Each structure stands twice: as structure tokens, then as C-alpha cells.
């Protein structure tokens, strides 16, 4: 059954479900080695398009997900920010995670944090979640800086990502958490 999609707005951004026009700019950002520095590899166009289909399907199903993020001023698709229930092996599953991936020209403007605040509001107020988690490779300091900026706390429960081989430089992950009572 399709759930009605929430379209969320911040001062400078729109969070919405994905449209076909997002395929090309999303494939471009997934092919950018700087954007994908802390992932095992960049994505091919087919891998990127499959991700769009999967994420779009989840938003249709649940009403939330990794929302496509659009800059109001330009109307440009700039990446995604949103909520997800990871379906792969994690030591703390089930959980509700928040995540982000923006095209490089849109870093350093406060966009990820701005969108994430609205996504967190959706998590705690609309979904009534007790906790939201966020995780990333230990060496992805730009991403953990967003977590800290939002008020997430380091749970000090570092874990090894199950999809990565022992000794891989991205294997060790930090886990940050925010409780509903800590969201203001
Ligand atoms: C992780 C990522 C989303 C962070 O983006 P970001 O733009 O650094 O994060 P924020 O939105 O919190 O912006 C903060 C920066 O904007 C600056 N800024 C400029 N104008 C601002 C404003 N109006 N409001 C707030 N911050 C502003 C801040 O000073 C800060 O700059 P700094 O990085 O020089 O300290 C981005 O680097 C990215 O997409 N990386 C690739 C994908 C990735 O690794 N995702 C995470 C995987 S787990």
C-alpha cells in the first residue's frame, strides 16, 4: 500500500520523493570520488539508478526515507538527506538512522544540517521515534561533524561494518545517537 508522501520544507531546501529528473545529477554525484571518498567505491550509473528506484519505493511504502533534496533558490537537485531503517546486518538493528549525501558544490553551506533538523523533527514528532542513530566510517570526520552539530552524542560503541573486510580502512564505524528527549 502506498503511504502519502510528506513534502518537507526548510528555509532554503525542499525534501521530497524522487523524480526521474534526479537520476542524472544523482549519478554525477555518485561518480564523484570526493563525494564517495568514505565509501568503498564510486557508483556506476546503473548502481546509482537502482538506488534511486529502491529509495523511491521505500518512500512510497513508508512515507519517509532518504528524501531527495532540492535547493529552493535554484530548483536544483543537490543530493539526499533523510531517514532509513537499514536492512543489512548491524549490531544495533532494528534502528532508525539519519543519513546524508550532497553534491560537493553544496557542502559548506549548512544544507545537510538544515535538512537533517527537519528530518529529525519528522522522526520524533511524526513517527514518534524514541531514538535516531547515525553512523559513518571513523575517518569520515565531515559526516560526524554534522552529527555533533545536530546534538547527537557519540555512543562510544564503535563497530565493524559487516560489508567491509577486516582491516579495510573504512571498516571501523562510529555510532552516534539522539533520544527524543534530547531533541529541541
Ligand atoms: C557529510 C556532508 C553531508 C556534510 O556536509 P556539510 O556541508 O559539511 O555539512 P553542514 O550542512 O552541517 O554544513 C556545515 C558547514 O557549512 C558552513 N555554513 C555556511 N553557511 C552556513 C549556514 N548558513 N548555516 C550553517 N552552516 C553554514 C559551516 O560553517 C560548516 O562549514 P565547515 O565545514 O567549514 O566547518 C557532505 O560532506 C557530504 O555529502 N559528504 C559525502 C557523503 C558522505 O560522506 N555522507 C555521509 C556518509 S555516512
Ligand list: coenzyme A
Mean pLDDT, all residues: 95
Spatial order of the strands in the main sheet? 1-2-3-4-5
Total beta-strand segments? 9
> End-to-end span in angstroms?
33 Å
Helix-strand blueprint:
Layout (H helix, E strand, L loop, with lengths): L7 E2 L3 E4 L6 H8 L14 H18 L3 E6 L5 E8 L12 E6 L8 H16 L4 E7 L3 H10 L2 E2 L4 E2 L11 E8 L5
Antiparallel strand pairs: 1-2, 2-3, 3-4, 4-5, 6-9, 7-9, 8-9
Helix pairs in contact: 1-2, 3-4
The structure holds coenzyme A.
Coenzyme A binds next to strand 5, helix 3 and helix 4.
Describe this structure in words.
- This protein is α+β, with helices and mostly antiparallel strands and 184 residues long.
- It is built from four helices and nine strands.
- It has helices at 23-30, 45-62, 111-126, 141-150; strands at residues 8-9, 13-16, 66-71, 77-84, 97-102, 131-137, 153-154, 159-160, 172-179.
- The strands form two sheets. It has a five-stranded antiparallel sheet with strand order 1-2-3-4-5, with helices on both faces.
- Strand 1 (8-9) and strand 2 form a beta hairpin.
- The longest helix is centred in the first third of the chain and has 18 residues, at 45-62.
- The protein is globular.
- The model has no long low-confidence stretch (mean pLDDT 95).
- The structure holds coenzyme A (COA).
- Coenzyme A is lined by residues 35, 38, 99-102, 107-113, 136, 140, 142-143, 146, 149.
Amino acid at each position: 500500500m502506498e503511504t502519502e508522501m510528506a513534502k518537507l520544507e526548510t528555509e532554503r531546501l525542499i525534501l521530497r520523493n524522487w523524480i526521474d529528473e534526479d537520476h542524472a545529477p544523482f549519478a554525477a554525484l555518485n561518480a564523484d570520488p570526493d563525494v564517495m571518498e568514505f565509501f568503498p567505491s564510486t557508483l556506476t550509473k546503473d548502481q546509482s539508478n537502482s538506488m534511486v528506484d529502491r529509495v523511491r519505493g521505500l518512500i512510497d511504502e513508508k512515507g519517509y526515507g532518504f528524501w531527495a533534496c532540492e535547493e529552493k533558490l535554484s530548483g536544483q537537485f543537490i543530493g539526499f538527506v533523510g531517514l532509513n531503517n537499514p536492512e543489512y546486518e548491524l549490531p544495533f538493528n532494528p534502528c532508525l538512522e539519519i543519513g546524508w549525501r550532497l553534491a560537493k558544490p553544496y557542502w559548506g553551506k549548512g544544507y545537510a544540517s538544515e535538512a537533517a533538523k527537519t528530518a529529525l523533527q519528522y522522526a520524533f514528532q511524526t513517527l514518534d521515534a524514541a531514538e535516531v542513530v547515525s553512523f559513518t566510517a571513523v575517518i569520515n570526520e565531515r559526516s560526524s561533524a554534522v552529527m555533533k552539530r545536530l546534538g547527537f552524542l557519540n555512543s562510544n560503541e564503535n563497530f565493524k561494518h559487516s560489508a567491509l573486510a577486516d582491516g579495510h580502512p573504512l571498516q571501523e564505524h562510529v555510532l552516534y545517537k539522539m533520544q527524543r528527549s534530547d531533541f529541541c
